[in-house]
Fold:
Amino acid sequence: MTRFASTIQFLRSSEIRDLMSLATAPGIISFAGGMPGNDLFPLNEVDEIYNSLSVKEKQVAMQYGPTNGLPNLLESLNEYLKAKGLPVESNRIMITTGSLQAINILAKAFVDPGDYIMVENPSFIGALSAFRSYQANLITVPMNADGIDIPQLKEKIASAPQKPKFFYYSPHFHNPAGIIYSQEIKEQLIEVLKGQDIPLLEDDVYSDLYFYEEDKDKLKLIKAMNPDGIDVCYTGSFSKILGPGLRLGWMLVPEHIYQKCELIKQSIDACSPSFSQVIADKFLRSGFIEKYVGEVRLEYKKRALAMFDCLEKNLPSYVKWNKPRGGFYIWLQLPQGTDSTEILKKAIEKGTVFVTGKTFDPDGKRNDCMRISYCNTDVEAINKGIPIIAQAIKEVCG
Ligand SMILES: Cc1ncc(COP(=O)(O)O)c(C=O)c1O
Structure:
């Protein structure tokens, strides 16, 4: 028998993955993915950038680079993050292979098998898998419309069998809950964690994709507030604002944490793709990224509003959902006890797919909710697919 490592058992596949394999049939309308629209990638600009590179730059692109990132990209990203008010002077940036790698490295830096960490419920499945792979015990804290439930957070920290190693959260246009943390909850979160020796992992991949200018004030990161008495480890990514195929993300963390993370990254992949780093640097340096993000924001807003309208027209009143103000997702709350996997089966039969609630539940239980995303479907597909989902919901819930 093949003698795999015992940690492998902590990596769970799910019935959802099996269902999803049915969902790749041609013609299926997918509200499942959290990926940018294929039709929105800046392909011409990538061509132009590549063609304008000097031979020396192309050689750099094909070569290994420093573990923490190519100096040019570190410089341009430094400026980009500084403009967002992030404390780049007092922290270190490391370029990573997607922000999922940043999260994974941070988990490796903090978690011994059996350690406790705190996560939101619901939470980003990729991070949960990373935490499980290091055999972390997940303490889950429920979320409300404004962010984490602070009294429960306090209670769970106090009653944890061991002091949690960190708290992982995602402040803006949450995946999957779609919400923005209020300033009040962020401040309360700071108060709870201050002086506790519980670092905060702040995972921020959607903030740039806001739909309403007036929300910009609400998108202040805790990292940018730079609170005393908490190690805030901020992670971000080019995936949602340029293309996940670049596999480029970053972390901005205090120096002492950076030192450990750099050692960990060296042993994982030595460096992130130089090719992508050269391209991403040019996008930042030319200022094209702001223009491009401005354009895709409008398109995502159009799709989000189309989906919202369609939900209003088609869904029974017992289903509740958030009005999207940015990002990629709408989170549907079904009547208590509903099994959204049953809805998914019916939706797939009729040619539409989404992600069930329990996929995002760290305890793998709550399934009376579901995530639909509007990022990779045009308005026509939304208008065709949502009535199918509405029908499937009615068939299951009555
Ligand atoms: C909340 C959140 N964090 C992190 C990621 C990881 O993104 P990447 O590794 O592509 O940067 C995702 C991707 O879906 C996400 O939704």
